[in-house]
């Protein structure tokens, strides 16, 4: 009998709010995640970093580079003149036109990386981006250059938010979102590999964030057509007033968390012949 197929499972938005952090920590402690991505722009980040330290042997902790939720850690007079990040639908066309204020974004990237190291005492195990901003033209180049400048090439991994169309269609759901992100990420993988960064191979987890949807059924599709180092994203957590103020994705986080902590999650892994693993161990 062949061994179970390994995949990494990453909870995005660690430190977004105290309740989201608490939910992710519950899933980590239960051994139901192998990574979580931290938003160092949020006030909850230093406390979240301290809480994660005891869980470090069992999961990766990454930087969730943020340019679309809340505000920056420093002044961005062109990108965020009123102190609030712009929406993703404003960033994407500007990125493709080459119209982003890249020096401001580079400076903010450095601040977020510094905030990660200041609170956690070490560089991130990997880097991804809130709403996949890390793969956008210009931003991707500056991210790769900054991480290489810090001596992290070959030491940490980067999230490739794209997957092959054949795999995307094989999953049968949410292919519109997946194909859109794959198009935005065109060229990212080649640039990262050329700079000696490790990457996942295979990506899924796109969702409508509808709490009424049977998330277990969705999750079973995420396991289909995996790559050599598949990564699944998820968004578990509890809900509090701060989350409701900052983000429209609320009740579905509770649904995802309940599923991850359930026996049904383990049954789906067993039926698929899948097991949780860290990217670094694949």
Apparent shape = globular
Major sheet description: 9 strands, parallel
The total tally of domains equals: 1
Total of helices: 12
Order of helices and strands: EHEHEHHEHEHHHEEHEHHHE
What is the count of β-strands? 9
Chain-averaged pLDDT: 96
So what's the CATH class? Alpha Beta
CATH topology value? TIM Barrel
Secondary structure category: alpha/beta
Keywords: Carbohydrate metabolism, Hydrolase, Magnesium, Metal-binding
InterPro entries: Glyco_hydro/deAcase_b/a-brl (IPR011330), YdjC-like (IPR006879)
Pfam families: YdjC (PF04794)
Organism: Candidatus Rhodoblastus alkanivorans
What tags apply to this protein structure?
single chain, 282 residues, alpha/beta, TIM Barrel, 9-stranded parallel beta sheet, 13% strand, globular
Gist?
The protein has 282 residues and is an alpha/beta fold. The protein is built from 12 helices and 9 strands. It has a single domain, classed as Glycoside hydrolase/deacetylase (TIM Barrel), CATH 3.20.20.
Q: How would you describe this protein?
A:
By secondary structure, the protein is an alpha/beta fold. It has one domain (5-281): Glycoside hydrolase/deacetylase (TIM Barrel, Alpha-Beta Barrel). The chain has helices at 18-29, 45-52, 88-97, 102-120, 139-149, 165-171, 175-184, 188-194, 215-222, 241-246, 251-260, 263-272; strands at residues 5-14, 35-38, 60-65, 126-129, 157-158, 198-199, 203-204, 231-234, 274-276. Strands 1, 2, 3, 4, 5, 6, 7, 8 and 9 form a nine-stranded parallel beta sheet that branches. β4, α5 and β5 (157-158) form a beta-alpha-beta unit. The radius of gyration is 18 Å and the shape is globular. Pfam families: YdjC. Keywords: Carbohydrate metabolism, Hydrolase, Magnesium, Metal-binding. This is ChbG/HpnK family deacetylase.
């Amino acid at each position: 009998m062949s061994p179970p197929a390994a995949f990494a499972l990453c909870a995005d938005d660690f430190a977004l709010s105290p309740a989201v952090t608490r939910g992710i920590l519950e899933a980590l402690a239960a051994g139901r995640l192998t990574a979580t991505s931290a938003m160092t722009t949020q006030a909850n980040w230093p406390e979240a970093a301290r809480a994660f330290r005891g869980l470090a042997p069992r999961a990766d902790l990454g930087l969730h580079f943020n340019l679309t939720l809340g505000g920056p850690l420093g002044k961005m007079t062109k990108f965020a003149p009123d102190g609030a990040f712009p929406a993703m639908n404003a960033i994407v066309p500007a990125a493709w036109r080459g119209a982003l204020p890249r020096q401001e974004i580079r400076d903010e990237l450095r601040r977020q990386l510094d905030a990660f190291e200041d609170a956690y005492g070490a560089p991130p195990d990997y880097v991804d981006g809130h709403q996949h901003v890390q793969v956008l033209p210009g931003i991707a180049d500056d991210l790769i250059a900054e991480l290489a400048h810090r001596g992290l090439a070959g030491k940490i991994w980067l999230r490739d938010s794209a997957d092959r169309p054949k795999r995307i269609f094989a999953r049968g759901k949410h292919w519109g979102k997946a194909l859109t992100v794959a198009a935005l990420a065109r060229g990212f993988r080649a640039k990262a590999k050329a700079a000696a960064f490790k990457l996942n191979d295979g990506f899924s987890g796109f969702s409508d964030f509808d709490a009424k949807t049977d998330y277990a059924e969705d999750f079973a599709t995420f396991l289909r057509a995996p790559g050599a180092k598949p990564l699944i994203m998820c968004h578990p957590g509890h809900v509090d007033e701060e989350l409701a103020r900052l983000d429209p994705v609320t009740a579905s986080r509770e649904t995802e968390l309940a599923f991850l902590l359930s026996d049904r999650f383990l049954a789906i892994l067993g039926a698929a012949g899948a097991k949780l693993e860290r990217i670094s161990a694949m």
